[in-house]
């Protein structure tokens, strides 16, 4: 499965990067495939291991913030491996085809 999630501390002011870094650190130390962008961290693995990492990432922020918001989206597709990369590669392949077609026109 792939889980995209965002952990946001509440009640700590506007600058939350330090708190978010605590959550991302947990993800990176997990050893699971992951990506972090401006809005979400995506992590790939089996249900129990991914959810454990999400739980620990929330706990890391919760240890320093009075309240935590969690947004989570999951793609549960048994048997798929390396979805973090392959899904993006598929989109890029279609974009490259579109680019080639517009040059021929």
Helix fraction by DSSP (H/I, runs of at least 4)? 40-55%
Structural class: alpha+beta
Tell me, briefly, the overall form. Answer: globular
Task: Characterize the largest beta sheet: strand count, sense, and whether it forms a barrel.
Answer: 4 strands, antiparallel
Helix and strand run: EHEEHEH
Family: Belongs to the UPF0045 family.
Domain Thiamine-binding protein: 3-92
InterPro entries: MTH1187/YkoF-like, Thiamine_BP, UPF0045_domain
Protein name: UPF0045 protein
Task: Please write out the topology.
Layout lengths: L1 E9 L6 H14 L3 E3 L4 E4 L2 H16 L4 E9 L7 H22 L1
Pfam families: Thiamine_BP
InterPro entries: MTH1187/YkoF-like, Thiamine_BP, UPF0045_domain
Organism: Streptomyces echinoruber
